[in-house]
Amino acid sequence: MATDLAVRRYRTLYAMLLRLYPRPFYDRFGEGMAQTFHDQCREYRDARKGLFGLALWVLFETSVGIVRENTTHMPQLGKTILRVALGALVLLMVPLVASRFVPGWNWPPAAFLRVYLLFFVTGMVFALVARRMGAWSYKVGVGVALVAGFALGWSNMVHVADSENPANLWYYSVLVVGAVGALLARLKAPGMARTLFVMAATLALIAVILPSGAPPDMARRMAIGHTVYVVLFTASGLLFRHASLARWQ
Question: Is the CB of residue 173 less than 8 Å from the CB of residue 206?
Fold first, then answer.
């Protein structure tokens, strides 16, 4: 019967998934879990219930358990990487789902990979940098700077893909200024404050001297967007400035 074949396939898949548990956990519980799943599949088959729904739920629940068990045996850095990777994957679902329902949203697979890397790198930078600093203003400053930088990088990537205008690549210079400035400042608050102020000034200069050639409505929206980014970078710089002053009080 087709249902017997389905039961065997699901059990084989489940047995392979159980192997991802830590070895001590698998040796202790793996055989019993596999047998329990097999019995459930046979009960659903005999009752003519939805076998696929059962298998899907159990596989999902087991995957969550595997992540939880492996996380408990990881060092702190490994836990951070795993959490950020999973968080980036969850965020990637937003454009992935949107591409299925929004007309004209036809990203190639490489675009989704770049977006995932952007999510992951942004999350890792925040996790590794912010946890080293005790001042709340420093952590908030890092968060604001990363959100603004991520949004600028994302929007610019979309604009370059849509318009194929190489002039938009100038906006990446703002992110380069931020990366170089953070390295030179060694992530210390006074240097980070100066870096964010320079990023705001660089973006304002680009907005003024770079011809857009866009219709009036689009040009007005671009001006509003530039203003928002400049305000965010400036606010982040002020937060870093506050953190540097609080250190000496």
Answer: yes
